[in-house]
Amino acid sequence: MSFETILFEVDSGVARLTLNRPDKLNSFNTQMHGEVREALARIPESGARVLVLTGAGRGFCAGQDLGDRAVAPGSQGVDLGESIENRYNPLVLSLRNLGMPVIAAVNGVAAGAGANIALACDIVIAARSANFVQAFSKLGLIPDSGGTWFLPRLVGDARAMGLTLLGNKLPAEQAAAWGLIWQCVEDAELATTVDAMARQFAAAPTRGLAATKNALRRSWQNSFKEQLDLERDVQRELGRSSDYVEGVAAFTEKRTPRFTGR
């Protein structure tokens, strides 16, 4: 399948998915949803051990392309639930459930669903000129794509309320200070910082990292005892993995481990 609205490649264990509608600030239309879905479906069998998600041009993603969802003045509006159920929800679930680290490289504005798609990734690194905008209130909507779930957990109720009800821009530096994202870097350093992290993950014990992601997320609904039991069970499984055997051997032999992700 050839892509028109995204760029996708896998090289040396690193999958790179670039939203590529720069004239529309990489906002989503129906075609882009389909192409992103196809690219994500390819990743598990591609040999990739990390995914980098970014945007082309001066923006990361401005959310939904409203031109692709025209509403006539005075009409009864549209059923947005279908798009949420069949496009945005599967997208953020795919990012959350991918069995490898997922890095969002936010190179410019991340607005509406675009902001929450970034937050669905495991690690968010943003350029200093980037900003995050929960723009839904300007349209009479609520945050979707997981926004009402991510924000209170990441920044607390007070800040989540302010961000969503006001819809103000949150600069990347402030987002990092609040713990909304992992890191804010100078614009010129974004690519090299993300590439270095992607290479690190591509050489890491992928199976263990995927299990760590899952364990951290399950902790929100588990009791302490349930989480201890989960840690025991997962550790038992990982202790039989090739990467654990290699990690112990490398430590004993004082050499760099050669992990395979298995």
Keywords:
alpha/beta; 44% helix; 6-stranded mixed sheet
Description:
The protein is of the alpha/beta class and 262 residues long. The chain is 44% helix and 16% strand. A six-stranded mixed beta sheet has the order 1-2-3-5-7-10, with helices on both faces. Strands 4-6-8-9 form a four-stranded mixed beta sheet. Helix 1 runs parallel beside helix 2 and helix 8 packs antiparallel against helix 9. The longest helix has 17 residues. The radius of gyration is 19 Å and the shape is globular. The protein starts with 5 loop residues before the first strand and ends in a 9-residue tail after the last helix.
List the helices and strands and how they pair.
Layout: E1 6-11, E2 14-19, H1 30-42, E3 50-55, E4 59-61, H2 81-97, E5 102-106, E6 109-111, H3 113-119, E7 123-127, E8 131-133, H4 147-155, H5 157-166, E9 169-171, H6 172-178, E10 183-185, H7 190-202, H8 206-218, H9 224-238, H10 242-253
Parallel strand pairs: 2-3, 3-5, 4-6, 5-7, 6-8, 7-10
Antiparallel strand pairs: 1-2, 8-9
Helix pairs in contact: 1-2, 4-5, 8-9
Strand order in the sheet with the most strands? 1-2-3-5-7-10
* Low-confidence sequence ranges: none
Beta-strand percent range: 15-25%
In DSSP terms, counting alpha (H) and pi (I) runs of 4 or more, how many helices?
10
Structural class: alpha/beta
Residues in helix, %: 40-55%
Radius of gyration: 19 Å
Largest sheet: 6 strands, mixed
- Write down how many β-strands occur, each being a DSSP E stretch of 2 or more residues: 10
Oligomer state equals single chain
Average pLDDT works out at 95
